[in-house]
């Protein structure tokens, strides 16, 4: 997953980048499933590897982007970017290394939750849905409005000016 | 034995890859992809914490997973709007290179 994640930003060709991103998202979905989050894993495959990546590839093909030619690189800016990224990763390693919580293994789950593995009824979706429509009802509706606004905004943006 | 720290490290590396992509790449579409990588790194650590923090009945704490659901939804909307802006920009300027788009630069 990390290799393909790195390939996303190393590849010069945007199509290769997008395909690496698909593989990276699929591997991430596998990681979600290893954490017993089956619903999130499947949503990840459907929404990211399906919908969003089709959108990306469609736009790349539509704009007919070729592998970008090597330009004059701004070395100071690049060095700054690499330095900030390295500082970030060092800090993350330091914080996680110091965290006592991070050294504990995951607590075992009761058999009901684990039973999704054997192909019997998994209560993962059930519990998330229950939480979504009880505790998080208002955010859920707000998300719906956000998607509506995004849809209208995209239509307005991509419309040709006719005036 | 896989611990919580392993997932957090992987999530941190993924976030850093996305961050480096935003910092180093000059193609708007690839910058948008790197943004997606960063959002997914946050999702991974949220799911790991959700699995780690069990409630008294032994089930994972699903609040984190609901939050991941919201993040995925917002990310989908954001990508749609971002790509529409890129298409409008490309129609205007015939480029996706950020250094060619410097009208707002002071």
Task: Note the main attributes of this structure.
heterodimer, A: 163 residues, mainly alpha, Four Helix Bundle (Hemerythrin (Met), subunit A), 2 domains, 72% helix, extended, B: mainly alpha, elongated
Quick recap:
By secondary structure, chain A is an all-alpha fold. Chain A has helices at residues 2-10, 14-34, 38-63, 75-98, 111-114, 124-134, 137-158. Chain A folds into two domains: 1-68, NADH-ubiquinone/plastoquinone oxidoreductase chain 6, subunit NuoJ (Four Helix Bundle (Hemerythrin (Met), subunit A), Up-down Bundle), CATH 1.20.120; 113-163, no CATH class.
Describe what you observe in this structure.
The complex is a heterodimer of chains A (163) and B (106). The mean pLDDT of chain A is 80. Chain A has helices at residues 2-10, 14-34, 38-63, 75-98, 111-114, 124-134, 137-158. With 163 residues, chain A is mainly alpha-helical. In chain A, helix 1 packs antiparallel against helix 2 (14-34) and helix 2 (14-34) runs antiparallel to helix 3 (38-63). Chain B is an all-alpha fold and 106 residues long. Chain B is 73% helix and 0% strand. The radius of gyration of chain B is 18 Å and the shape is elongated.
């Amino acid at each position: 997953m990390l290799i393909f994640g790195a390939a996303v930003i190393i590849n010069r060709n945007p199509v290769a980048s997008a395909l690496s991103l698909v593989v990276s998202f699929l591997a991430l979905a596998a990681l979600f499933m290893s954490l017993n989050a089956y619903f999130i894993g499947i949503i990840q495959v459907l929404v990211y590897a399906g919908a969003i990546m089709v959108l990306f590839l469609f736009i790349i093909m539509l704009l007919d982007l070729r592998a970008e030619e090597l330009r004059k690189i701004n070395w100071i800016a690049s060095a700054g970017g690499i330095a900030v990224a390295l500082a970030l990763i060092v800090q993350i390693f330091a914080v996680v290394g110091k965290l006592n919580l991070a050294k504990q293994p995951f607590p075992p789950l009761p058999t009901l939750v684990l039973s999704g593995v054997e192909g019997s009824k998994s209560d993962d979706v059930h519990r998330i849905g229950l939480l979504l429509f009880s505790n998080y009802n208002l955010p859920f509706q707000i998300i719906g409005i956000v998607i509506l606004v995004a849809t209208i905004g995209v239509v307005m943006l991509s419309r040709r000016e006719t005036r | 034995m896989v611990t919580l720290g392993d997932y957090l490290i992987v999530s941190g590396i993924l976030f850093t890859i996305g961050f480096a992509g935003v910092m180093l790449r000059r193609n708007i579409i690839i910058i948008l992809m790197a943004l997606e990588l960063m959002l997914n790194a946050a999702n991974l650590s949220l799911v790991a914490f959700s699995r780690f923090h069990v409630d008294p009945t032994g089930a994972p704490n699903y609040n984190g997973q609901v939050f991941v659901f919201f993040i995925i939804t917002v990310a989908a909307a954001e990508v749609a709007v971002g790509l529409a802006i890129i298409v409008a920009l490309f129609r205007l300027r015939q480029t996706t290179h950020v250094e060619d788009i410097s009208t707002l630069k002071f």
